[in-house]
Known about the structure:
By secondary structure, the protein is mainly α. It has one domain. Helix content is 71%, strand content 0%. The two termini are 35 Å apart.
Amino acid sequence: MTQGETADPWFVARMALTASLVAAESTFRIWTRSAKLFASHAPAIMALSRDASSTSNDSTKVQAQLRDEVLGLARDVAMLGWLEARRAIDELDTRTRDGRATTDGPTRPQRAKQ
């Protein structure tokens, strides 16, 4: 804040409202994209579940495949959640930035590994 400027009395309220909206949007995106992932994996998981429950000689092999399929789905959902959280943070940063800062380049200094 420069000399002569006054603090914005609505800053905290706007920040809380904006954060709530970004969180709601992010949650909705995660939910819809996760539902699509579940729908795409469901047929394979259902078939493997049926086959793994049988008493055939291949049941241990099918159980391993089922485990791999479920873990793959869990990894996909976790990655989706991580990506959406990063997107939400960037959106919150953009939406709460005042007009003084530029958004053309990186918003924070990048450190190089040494």
